[in-house]
Amino acid sequence: MENKYLRILPILGGIISLISLLFPAVYVNTVIIFFHIEVYIWFNGYYEATALGKTNTGYLTDPIFAFCTLLVVISSFIIIGMKKENLWLVMPIIQIVAVIIWLIAIPYSFPDIDFWAWYKIGSGIIGILFGSILVIIGFSISKIINEQNK
């Protein structure tokens, strides 16, 4: 007997992962000797930097950011569109691996600074991880319920 509510957590997790791409993945917001500096970097490599009242925007050129973004987008759409739980465990693991690859790659785009001494994890990363965890929880609950119904 299939419970129609089992899909709610995985679908919600997939949607949260997609929405998280709209928020900065890492950021720095600090004051250095009377100068306010803000830098926001999104998961796809888009950045917005403000210093001395001037804003600079653009994209980081490393293709790994586009690759990781595609992994998250494709796996989120697969999670949202799945009728059965066949890939509910594989897709969030792919998302978590994409986040790990992204977190390892981002400091290499800024070789002149100690990246993690300045930057903090933003809601873009946290949201993808939270969405992935929801999918894994939904998968676990569906397996438990299916075992009990046998």
List keywords for this structure.
single chain; 150 residues; alpha+beta; 5-stranded antiparallel sheet; 5 helices; 5 strands; 51% helix; 21% strand; elongated
Q: Please, could you describe this protein's structure?
A:
With 150 residues, the protein is α+β, with helices and mostly antiparallel strands. It has one domain. Helix content is 51%, strand content 21%. It is built from five helices and five strands, in the order αββββαααβα. A five-stranded antiparallel beta sheet has the order 4-3-2-1-5. α1 runs antiparallel to α5 (123-148), α2 (64-81) runs antiparallel to α3 and α3 runs antiparallel to α5. It is elongated, with a radius of gyration of 18 Å. The mean pLDDT is 89.
Strand and helix layout:
Elements: H1 8-20, E1 24-32, E2 35-42, E3 46-51, E4 54-59, H2 64-81, H3 90-105, H4 115-118, E5 120-121, H5 123-148
Antiparallel strand pairs: 1-2, 1-5, 2-3, 3-4
